[in-house]
């Protein structure tokens, strides 16, 4: 059984990909590692993930189309060690963030167990395009509607 589409209205043309992105985000939300998203200035964002115990070589950041994907995988260093209590597990993770069109990843750094990723959202240019209304004969209009070339 399919659920009703959020963007099912005929007024939302070309937004069907947004629903697919919302589904992807919903599937990847297990809560680990915890993160913050801050607005640093107009058009500037910072994502901060708590990745205590991970070295830079254990982390990978990629941008796949409009998704920022952060992966962490620690090597198992428990060989030869005897733990009386192990509360800090070497847990791998993958955290994905959907980026809006035009957002650019400027850089990332690791500091005191926190991974920071800087993002920039350039201000879009305001575009106004005038659409000419052509005066046509009934025959030309009919052939355009039917898929023909028509006459202008």
Can you offer a commentary on this structure?
The protein is α+β, with helices and mostly antiparallel strands. It has a domain of 93 residues: Sandwich (Immunoglobulin-like). Helix content is 13%, strand content 31%. The chain has two helices and seven strands. The strands form two sheets. Strands 1-2-7-6 form a four-stranded antiparallel sheet, with no helix packed on it. It has a three-stranded antiparallel sheet with strand order 3-4-5, with no helix packed on it. A hairpin with a 2-residue loop joins strand 3 and strand 4. It starts with 15 loop residues before the first helix and ends in a 7-residue tail after the last helix.
Give the uncertain stretches in residue-range form.
Answer: none
Query: What does the main sheet amount to?
Result: 4 strands, antiparallel
Instruction: Work out the strand percent.
Output: 25-35%
Mean pLDDT equals 81
Secondary-structure content class: alpha+beta
At CATH level 3, the topology of the domain at 32-124 is Immunoglobulin-like
* CATH architectural category of the domain at 32-124: Sandwich
Percent range for helical residues? Answer: 10-25%
N-to-C series of helices and strands? HEEEEEEEH
Distance between the termini: 47 Å
How is the largest sheet built, in terms of strand order? 1-2-7-6
Radius of gyration, rounded? 25 Å
User: Can you identify the CATH class of the domain at 32-124?
Assistant: Mainly Beta
Total of DSSP H or I helical runs spanning 4+ residues: 2
Assembly state of the chains shown: single chain
Strand element count: 7
Q: Tell me the overall shape.
A: elongated
